[in-house]
Amino acid sequence: MVSSSSESTTMVADDRVKVWYRFVPREGWPQFDQEGVWATPLGGDLAQVDNVPFFVDGAAEGDIVRFTTDAEGVRWVEERVEWSGWCTILVLPVRGGPKPTAEAVCEVFAPLGIGGEAYSAEFPLVALSVPPDADVRATKALLDRGVKAGWWNYQEACIGDAWPTA
Questions:
Q1: 77 with 91, same domain?
Q2: Which residues, other chains included, contact 163 with Cβ-Cβ below 8 Å and sequence gap of 6+?
């Protein structure tokens, strides 16, 4: 899902654009320092993020971001203007465990109305996109149950006020 910069100026048929985040890589994770996501232009220097980021802390699907465009036409996110209310949870399946694939992880969360995107088959990282109306308590309980059962490990990449207290 992390795209190459050559894609950054390409428009897709539905007029979405690629916007890019710069960030400090997490320790122990792939050492990328930028990530491109699809976004819908809202006019001027604003866009709404259309997919869940994998490596950016504090970013979620649906966020409205402000960007600048460099000389090569690459749109760099400068700031989040409005949080969407969606949470981003990164799930890394345990190799050889009972839920070793991204697909298996997504199947577990689907009954809660939570979708996700898979990074790759070789590194089956899942970025779960938790909607604002999701049952946060049930989601956290399922995440913790999966850790205890040896299914996966997870990190909270973007959460709201309701998450820590659920």
A1: no
A2: 87, 136, 140, 156
